[in-house]
Prior knowledge:
Blueprint (H helix, E strand, L loop, with lengths): L1 E4 L3 E6 L2 E6 L7 H24 L7 E5 L4 E5 L4 E2 L8 H17 L2 E2 L8 E4 L2 E4 L6 E2 L3 H18 L4 H15 L3 H18 L2
Antiparallel strand pairs: 1-2, 2-3, 3-5, 4-5, 6-8, 7-10, 8-9
Helix pairs in contact: 2-4, 3-5
The site of magnesium ion has 3 residues, from loops.
Amino acid sequence: MIIAQGAEAILKKEGNKIIKERISKKYRLSGLDNQLRSFRTRREAKILEKLSILNFPSPKLYSMCDKSMKIEMEFIPGKLLRSQLDNNPVLWGEHIGKLVGILHSKNIIHDDLTTANMIVNKKNLFLIDFGLSFFSLKEEDKAVDLHLLKNTLNARHSLVYKDCWNAIIKSYAKHFDKADIVLKRLEKVELRGRNKSK
Ligand SMILES: Nc1ncnc2c1ncn2[C@@H]1O[C@H](COP(=O)(O)OP(=O)(O)O)[C@@H](O)[C@H]1O
Ligand SMILES: [Mg+2]
Protein backbone atom coordinates (compact mmCIF):
# COMPACT_ATOMS: atom_id res chain seq x y z
CA MET A 1 0.00 0.00 0.00
CA ILE A 2 1.39 3.41 -0.94
CA ILE A 3 1.42 5.65 2.14
CA ALA A 4 3.25 8.70 0.85
CA GLN A 5 4.57 10.04 -2.38
CA GLY A 6 6.93 12.94 -1.92
CA ALA A 7 9.09 14.86 -4.32
CA GLU A 8 11.94 12.38 -3.95
CA ALA A 9 10.47 9.05 -3.01
CA ILE A 10 7.52 6.70 -2.95
CA LEU A 11 6.81 5.02 0.38
CA LYS A 12 5.00 1.72 0.60
CA LYS A 13 3.90 -0.17 3.65
CA GLU A 14 4.05 -3.97 3.67
CA GLY A 15 3.11 -5.46 7.02
CA ASN A 16 5.38 -3.83 9.56
CA LYS A 17 7.84 -2.76 6.93
CA ILE A 18 8.24 0.49 5.02
CA ILE A 19 9.81 0.46 1.58
CA LYS A 20 11.21 3.81 0.51
CA GLU A 21 12.07 3.97 -3.16
CA ARG A 22 13.76 7.02 -4.62
CA ILE A 23 12.13 7.82 -7.92
CA SER A 24 13.85 9.39 -10.89
CA LYS A 25 13.49 13.08 -11.55
CA LYS A 26 12.89 13.70 -15.20
CA TYR A 27 14.37 17.17 -15.13
CA ARG A 28 17.74 15.92 -13.88
CA LEU A 29 20.26 14.49 -16.32
CA SER A 30 19.86 10.75 -15.99
CA GLY A 31 23.49 9.98 -15.08
CA LEU A 32 23.48 12.60 -12.39
CA ASP A 33 20.02 11.60 -11.23
CA ASN A 34 21.10 7.98 -10.74
CA GLN A 35 24.22 9.04 -8.88
CA LEU A 36 22.31 11.33 -6.57
CA ARG A 37 19.57 8.82 -5.82
CA SER A 38 21.98 6.00 -5.09
CA PHE A 39 24.12 8.30 -2.94
CA ARG A 40 21.14 9.40 -0.86
CA THR A 41 19.87 5.84 -0.56
CA ARG A 42 23.24 4.66 0.75
CA ARG A 43 23.58 7.62 3.06
CA GLU A 44 20.14 7.23 4.61
CA ALA A 45 20.86 3.53 5.19
CA LYS A 46 24.23 4.29 6.77
CA ILE A 47 22.75 6.83 9.18
CA LEU A 48 19.87 4.51 10.14
CA GLU A 49 22.40 1.78 10.88
CA LYS A 50 24.47 4.07 13.06
CA LEU A 51 21.36 5.30 14.89
CA SER A 52 20.21 1.80 15.64
CA ILE A 53 23.59 1.04 17.22
CA LEU A 54 23.07 4.13 19.39
CA ASN A 55 19.56 2.93 20.30
CA PHE A 56 18.18 6.17 18.94
CA PRO A 57 14.39 6.32 18.32
CA SER A 58 14.41 5.99 14.52
CA PRO A 59 13.31 3.16 12.20
CA LYS A 60 15.55 0.07 12.18
CA LEU A 61 17.12 -0.59 8.80
CA TYR A 62 16.14 -3.95 7.29
CA SER A 63 17.86 -3.73 3.91
CA MET A 64 19.24 -1.35 1.31
CA CYS A 65 19.77 -1.66 -2.43
CA ASP A 66 21.44 1.20 -4.27
CA LYS A 67 20.61 -0.36 -7.67
CA SER A 68 16.85 -0.34 -7.14
CA MET A 69 17.20 2.76 -4.89
CA LYS A 70 15.25 1.07 -2.14
CA ILE A 71 15.49 1.05 1.60
CA GLU A 72 13.47 -1.33 3.74
CA MET A 73 12.93 -0.22 7.30
CA GLU A 74 10.78 -0.61 10.35
CA PHE A 75 7.30 0.94 10.24
CA ILE A 76 6.82 3.36 13.14
CA PRO A 77 3.12 3.48 14.06
CA GLY A 78 1.67 6.73 15.33
CA LYS A 79 0.85 10.20 14.13
CA LEU A 80 3.01 12.86 12.58
CA LEU A 81 4.09 15.42 15.14
CA ARG A 82 2.74 18.06 12.76
CA SER A 83 -0.79 17.15 13.88
CA GLN A 84 0.09 16.84 17.58
CA LEU A 85 2.55 19.58 18.45
CA ASP A 86 0.04 22.36 19.01
CA ASN A 87 -1.74 20.32 21.72
CA ASN A 88 1.37 20.13 23.87
CA PRO A 89 4.17 22.34 22.54
CA VAL A 90 6.35 22.32 25.67
CA LEU A 91 6.29 18.57 26.15
CA TRP A 92 7.07 17.89 22.49
CA GLY A 93 9.63 20.68 22.49
CA GLU A 94 11.46 18.85 25.27
CA HIS A 95 11.42 15.66 23.21
CA ILE A 96 12.65 17.43 20.07
CA GLY A 97 15.46 19.19 21.95
CA LYS A 98 16.60 15.93 23.49
CA LEU A 99 16.67 14.03 20.20
CA VAL A 100 18.41 16.79 18.27
CA GLY A 101 20.88 17.19 21.15
CA ILE A 102 21.72 13.51 20.99
CA LEU A 103 22.12 13.61 17.20
CA HIS A 104 24.41 16.63 17.36
CA SER A 105 26.48 15.14 20.17
CA LYS A 106 27.13 12.24 17.77
CA ASN A 107 27.91 14.72 14.99
CA ILE A 108 24.88 13.74 12.95
CA ILE A 109 23.09 16.54 11.12
CA HIS A 110 19.52 15.68 10.15
CA ASP A 111 19.12 18.53 7.65
CA ASP A 112 15.35 18.24 7.33
CA LEU A 113 14.05 18.80 10.84
CA THR A 114 10.35 19.43 10.27
CA THR A 115 7.36 18.16 12.22
CA ALA A 116 6.46 15.99 9.21
CA ASN A 117 9.66 14.04 9.82
CA MET A 118 8.77 13.24 13.43
CA ILE A 119 6.34 10.56 14.58
CA VAL A 120 4.56 10.49 17.93
CA ASN A 121 4.36 6.90 19.09
CA LYS A 122 2.46 6.65 22.37
CA LYS A 123 4.48 8.95 24.61
CA ASN A 124 7.65 8.79 22.54
CA LEU A 125 9.00 10.76 19.64
CA PHE A 126 10.74 9.13 16.66
CA LEU A 127 12.72 10.86 13.93
CA ILE A 128 12.49 9.69 10.32
CA ASP A 129 13.65 10.80 6.85
CA PHE A 130 17.44 10.80 7.09
CA GLY A 131 17.84 11.12 3.31
CA LEU A 132 19.67 14.44 3.57
CA SER A 133 21.53 13.67 6.78
CA PHE A 134 25.29 13.68 7.09
CA PHE A 135 28.11 13.52 9.61
CA SER A 136 29.79 16.79 10.57
CA LEU A 137 31.93 18.18 13.35
CA LYS A 138 31.14 21.79 12.40
CA GLU A 139 29.09 23.99 14.70
CA GLU A 140 27.91 25.86 11.59
CA ASP A 141 26.16 22.74 10.26
CA LYS A 142 24.49 22.16 13.61
CA ALA A 143 23.38 25.78 13.82
CA VAL A 144 21.88 25.59 10.33
CA ASP A 145 20.06 22.39 11.34
CA LEU A 146 18.49 24.29 14.27
CA HIS A 147 17.77 27.30 12.07
CA LEU A 148 15.69 25.19 9.72
CA LEU A 149 13.81 23.65 12.65
CA LYS A 150 13.09 27.09 14.08
CA ASN A 151 11.80 28.36 10.75
CA THR A 152 9.45 25.41 10.28
CA LEU A 153 8.05 25.83 13.77
CA ASN A 154 7.51 29.50 13.17
CA ALA A 155 5.78 28.85 9.85
CA ARG A 156 3.77 25.72 10.71
CA HIS A 157 3.07 26.17 14.40
CA SER A 158 3.08 29.92 14.82
CA LEU A 159 0.70 30.02 17.81
CA VAL A 160 2.88 27.83 20.00
CA TYR A 161 6.20 28.54 18.36
CA LYS A 162 7.76 30.55 21.20
CA ASP A 163 6.94 28.12 24.02
CA CYS A 164 8.01 25.21 21.91
CA TRP A 165 11.30 26.76 20.86
CA ASN A 166 12.21 27.70 24.44
CA ALA A 167 11.58 24.12 25.55
CA ILE A 168 13.67 22.84 22.65
CA ILE A 169 16.79 24.85 23.43
CA LYS A 170 16.60 24.11 27.14
CA SER A 171 16.40 20.41 26.51
CA TYR A 172 18.98 20.57 23.68
CA ALA A 173 21.46 22.12 26.12
CA LYS A 174 20.84 19.34 28.63
CA HIS A 175 21.73 16.66 26.12
CA PHE A 176 24.59 18.25 24.23
CA ASP A 177 27.64 19.69 25.95
CA LYS A 178 28.53 22.05 23.10
CA ALA A 179 25.01 23.48 22.87
CA ASP A 180 26.06 26.98 23.94
CA ILE A 181 28.60 27.26 21.10
CA VAL A 182 26.02 26.12 18.56
CA LEU A 183 23.34 28.46 19.90
CA LYS A 184 25.80 31.38 19.67
CA ARG A 185 26.47 30.37 16.11
CA LEU A 186 22.74 30.21 15.44
CA GLU A 187 22.51 33.92 16.24
CA LYS A 188 25.03 34.59 13.48
CA VAL A 189 23.19 32.35 11.04
CA GLU A 190 19.98 34.23 11.76
CA LEU A 191 21.61 37.64 11.26
CA ARG A 192 22.98 36.44 7.96
CA GLY A 193 19.52 35.24 6.90
CA ARG A 194 18.01 38.57 7.79
CA ASN A 195 20.61 40.54 5.86
CA LYS A 196 20.14 38.34 2.83
CA SER A 197 16.41 38.89 2.72
CA LYS A 198 16.77 42.68 2.88
N1 LIG B 1 9.54 4.34 9.05
C1 LIG B 1 8.35 4.95 8.89
N2 LIG B 1 7.30 4.61 9.67
C2 LIG B 1 6.10 5.21 9.50
N3 LIG B 1 5.84 6.17 8.59
C3 LIG B 1 6.85 6.54 7.78
C4 LIG B 1 8.15 5.96 7.88
N4 LIG B 1 8.95 6.53 6.96
C5 LIG B 1 8.19 7.42 6.32
N5 LIG B 1 6.92 7.45 6.78
C6 LIG B 1 5.80 8.29 6.29
O1 LIG B 1 6.06 8.66 4.95
C7 LIG B 1 6.24 10.09 4.83
C8 LIG B 1 7.34 10.40 3.84
O2 LIG B 1 8.53 9.75 4.23
P1 LIG B 1 9.92 10.51 4.28
O3 LIG B 1 10.97 9.53 4.67
O4 LIG B 1 9.76 11.71 5.14
O5 LIG B 1 10.18 10.89 2.75
P2 LIG B 1 10.17 12.28 1.95
O6 LIG B 1 11.58 12.43 1.51
O7 LIG B 1 9.24 12.05 0.82
O8 LIG B 1 9.74 13.37 2.89
C9 LIG B 1 6.51 10.56 6.24
O9 LIG B 1 6.13 11.91 6.44
C10 LIG B 1 5.68 9.58 7.08
O10 LIG B 1 4.33 9.97 7.07
MG1 LIG C 1 9.96 13.75 4.90
